[in-house]
Amino acid sequence: MSTPRVVMYTTDWCGFCERARRVFKEKGVEFEEIDIEAKPESRTQMRERSGRTSVPQIFIGDHHVGGSSDLVALEEAGKLDALLGR
Fold it and tell me: Which of 24, 54, 56, 85 has the most neighbouring CB atoms within 10 Å?
């Protein structure tokens, strides 16, 4: 089973973004980070993909996870590994 691409829209100063980074790093998951302040056009892309304006917005493959609380809830429920193809 191949590992799906993980993409996270973030900002440098966001504590919730740091929380999501920590979850992925602790699991050894590589992720692409798109800083919506460094690339202002990516904010529009994030809104179009997620329908939300807050960060982080996390995608695993084509699946929109949501924010860091959603990511943590998936991990605590034991469902995150399945999304990650593990």
Answer: 56
